[in-house]
Structures are given as structure tokens and as C-alpha cells.
Write a structure and sequence with these properties.
This protein has 258 residues and is α/β, with parallel strands linked by helices. The protein has two domains: 52 residues, no CATH class; 170 residues, Rossmann fold, CATH 3.40.50.970. It is 44% helix and 13% strand. The chain is built from eleven helices and six strands. Strand 1, helix 5 and strand 2 form a beta-alpha-beta unit. The model has no long low-confidence stretch (mean pLDDT 90).
Length: 258
């Protein structure tokens, strides 16, 4: 119902066949007309089940050696489920999208469609103050971690007990995936990050607790210990680089997906 023709054209271009109808209408009048026209459908139960199945469908990386982001997400979900009160915060590129796809929490703060990254550490500091006693878990990629890494010092100084999980694939994986697709393996420019970097040790140097994990079991053990400690903790998970997920039963990518 956007009156701007350019915005309607943009919506049609980005949404593709997901856009059922596009009209130029007064928003309140349109809403009232939709309410008046709404009625229970005989196929409603089946439709709801189909939508629920489509929304909850998840596929996992195949043929990948090493730890993958979805397994890190499984370990995070276990701690979310065990907590009486939990705030889950996540931003980042490919790692962030995998984790967002697999972790559900009562309170969830993500970077959303804007794609803005880097704010999750300050958000975690604020969450521990706003909701004392809550289990606060952060998930971010190694690229994201670099924006405000010094906030680990703030966390240690103020003893804000959140757990930050850094999925380290030693690259800006969102850009890497795009360049691989568009240009090929010999044209991935400026995507690599240092494989020698140890974010857990850097956080420890700031005064936080830390752990390093290369398997799903190690991540689970580290998270359980970190949550129980109540201390600010950085868990670095060394993961295999995998492009962002596209959860589709048909195998067709959504318009606008990268």
C-alpha cells in the first residue's frame, strides 16, 4: 500500500513471487477492507500446518569437515533452553545467519535486514544491566568481533557476566562467498583474516574468562562452564567456512538472497 511508485517497484523486484499483490491505497481504509473481507477458510488448518512446516524447515551443511556454525548453534540452544531467563544477541555475516536460523530464545536481538554488524558486545553489556540475573549469550563472527573488541575490557572491569561465542572461520565469509560466486576462487580479494588470531586469548588478556573449541562437544562444555561461572567469558569456536543458509524445501533461493 505504499503510495510511492518507486517503492512499489522495488518491493516487486526484491520480493519476486513472494509479493502476492501490490496496490496504491489509503492504508487505514485498506486495513478496514481487509478486516471486513477476512473469514475462516475451510483449508485453514492445513494451510497453517504447511506454513509452520515451511517456516521451521532447516537444512544443515553437508560434506563439510570440521566444526560448523549450526553445531555451535545447537550448543547455544541447549544453554538457552536451560536458562530461567535468557537474552540472546547475535549479529554478523554468514556465521550470524546460521546461528540466527537455529537459535530461538524468549528475548532475541539480531541485526536484522539492515545487515549492520559489530554492536552485539555493547548490546550484551546493556542487557546484563537491564536484566540482572538473566543469562546473556552473544554470538558473532570473527569479522564482527573486531569492531568493538575492547568492550571485553569493559565487561571484565564491570563484571558483566555474559558469554560471547565467536565463530572464527578466518575470513569475511559473506564477502568471500559473494566473490567466489561472482569471480571464482582466484579472485577473492581482501576477504581473509588471520588464522593465527586467538580471540579467546585476547579477551583473557582484557580480564575475561576464555575457552577455545574445535568440536561441538568442546563448545557445549565451554558454554555450560561459562554460564555457570557468571563471569564475562569469550568462547572462540574454530569453524569451517560455510556460505549463509538458504532454507528452502524446493531448493530455490529467495529473491534478494546473497
Amino acid at each position: 500500500t505504499d503510495p510511492d511508485a518507486a517503492q512499489r517497484e522495488r518491493a516487486a523486484r526484491l520480493l519476486g513471487n513472494r509479493l502476492a499483490v501490490c496496490v496504491d491505497a489509503d492504508t487505514p481504509a485498506c486495513a478496514q477492507a481487509l478486516i471486513a473481507a477476512a473469514r475462516p477458510a475451510a483449508t485453514e488448518a492445513g494451510w497453517r500446518a504447511a506454513v509452520r512446516d515451511a517456516v521451521t524447515y532447516r537444512s544443515r551443511p553437508q560434506g563439510i569437515s570440521g566444526l560448523t556454525a549450526d553445531r555451535v548453534a545447537d550448543a547455544i540452544q541447549s544453554e538457552v533452553d536451560a536458562a530461567n531467563d535468557c537474552v540472546f544477541i547475535c549479529d554478523g555475516g554468514e556465521f550470524g545467519q546460521w546461528v540466527q536460523g537455529f537459535v530461538n530464545a524468549p528475548v532475541r536481538l539480531i541485526n536484522g535486514t539492515s545487515g549492520v554488524i559489530g554492536g552485539c558486545l555493547p548490546y550484551a553489556l546493556a542487557a546484563t544491566i537491564a536484566r540482572p540475573g538473566a543469562t546473556v549469550i552473544v554470538a558473532m563472527g570473527d569479522g564482527t568481533a573486531g569492531f568493538h573488541f575492547a568492550e571485553f575490557e569493559t565487561a571484565a572491569r564491570e563484571n558483566t557476566g555474559f558469554v560471547a561465542v565467536i565463530g572464527n572461520d578466518a575470513r569475511w565469509n559473506a564477502e568471500y562467498a559473494i566473490q567466489m560466486r561472482e569471480y571464482g576462487a582466484d579472485r577473492t580479494i581482501g576477504c581473509e583474516l588471520s588464522e593465527a588470531a586467538r580471540y579467546d586469548r585476547a579477551a583473557e588478556a582484557f580480564g575475561c574468562d576464555a575457552a577455545f573449541a574445535t568440536t561441538a562437544d568442546e563448545v557445549a562444555v565451554a558454554l555450560e562452564k561459562a554460564v555457570a561461572s557468571g563471569r564475562p567469558t569469550c568462547v572462540e569456536a574454530r569453524i569451517a567456512p560455510v556460505p549463509a543458509p538458504q532454507f528452502s524445501r524446493t531448493g530455490t533461493a529467495a529473491p534478494g538472497a546473497h
